[in-house]
TrEMBL record:
Family matches, as Pfam families: Cu-oxidase, Cu-oxidase_2, Cu-oxidase_3
Name recorded for this polypeptide: laccase
Signal peptide residues on this chain, from the entry's feature table: 1-31
Places the protein is found: Secreted, Extracellular space, Apoplast
Amino acid sequence: MGASPLLSPTFLAVFLLCFATLLSLLETALAETRHYKFDIKLQNVTRLCHTKSLVSVNGQFPGPRIVAREGDRLLSKHGIRQLRSGWADGPAYITQCPIPTGQSYVYNFTIVGQRGTLWWHAHISWLRATLYGPIIILPKQGTPYPFVKPHKQVPIIFDTEAIISQALQTGGGPNVSDAYTINGLPGPLYNCSAKDTFKLKVKPGKTYLLRLINAALNDELFFSIANHTLKVVEVDAVYVKPFETETLLITPGQTTNVLLNTKSHYPKYEKPPHSRVSTGKLRLFKPVLPPLNDTSFATNFTNKLRSLASAKFPANVPQNVDKRFFFTVGLGTSPCQSNQTCQGPNGTMFQASVNNISFVMPTTALLQSHYSGKSNGVYSPYFPIYPKIQFNYTGTPPNNTMVSNGTKLVVLPFNSSVELIMQDTSILGAESHPLHLHGFNFFVVGQGFGNFDPNKDPAKFNLVDPVERNTVGVPSGGWVAIRFLADNPGRSMVYALSPGSAHKLGSEDGLDCVRWKSSKSETTSSTS
């Protein structure tokens, strides 16, 4: 008798192929196309006893939330991997031209391999200070969370009331912000703000998923809830090994999902004398936060962040490196413009730089010039991969603090593995630099204080389960090492999110460094 066709290898292969195709079609059928319309307009907002006109989306501040599932297609983004759609990544004059007043643009992209919390924001001049909102990415239909299902999910956006116009005009450092806000509200500790307080009503003994977003321009923030412990479960739309903490650190541009388990009852010793007393008369508990300069806490917290590194959620860390880069990140100076008085050191202007080069904004989008074959004169592909002049980066700074200027890139071959060391400098004072990578996630394989030692520090890199994210803070007076795979063609970038010190590294294929300058016209916008 002949062999049964059900056992035939050819039949089995065809069956498996058809079954895999059916699953693929089923997943496609389950995915949705979600439409969001954003109207950019001026809106009067009253905070801190003053009414100001600010740029908003749909008249909301903060802007509306975008909700989607992994695999959904969005027509309408900070952190979304624009796979094969780099022209819609948002940064003005990098991937695309700004959206002129009175005109529109359709963002069309699919969420692939991400689930958690991200956010969208404007990407020209300083409009990001008010044009932003949350992106909530739910798991695919039928796919559970790798943690307990929450009773409710709550987006919480931190920000500051930014004061930047004077800094842009004088070249000096920005003033201290007027207030910190939660979901756009200052809270009861500020004048005229008792009613402008974010309040979260909870039920006893329930689990809440708080989706935290730091949209502040230049402030690393501590977050805590009095008398409660938080469990960190996700950062930058990537699951992490869960761990508990009373306080967490979140850098500008970063997102963190935490689980909050509410108490079963109000503390007995604080129970109000009358059962029907209003919540406004309950005692306000205040958490104890670390000092602003507590680098020890910051280091210990960031060291706890580890990828799941499981079969379902692997940590695909590049084990071998094709391209290595060493970038110094810090402040320098530029000459004051004629007929202008500047408040920088010795009458100069503060200028941010990477490897002592400050980016000059082009008038033609870089990606547009690349694909049209007209990049000559628009940018140079010869950005230095190491500082031209080496010095004791965290020690005594050099006497000459002037930076050079240029529109320069580093071109990366497609699918190359990249290691990038970002080193803070003490020029004009050491400070932390939040840096965000467009178009890619990366693995934070190492960090430390002082100068990076290429002979000793790589031996301590975590290549097993390092945290995967899209934004990282370069420690003040220290360094951070990241690795990623350049598998997303187009022009992406790493840029600093702090005012007066925005740097960009782009991947064009490549990398560039940017000094984000104020546009002459504030009437254009592009979102990211």
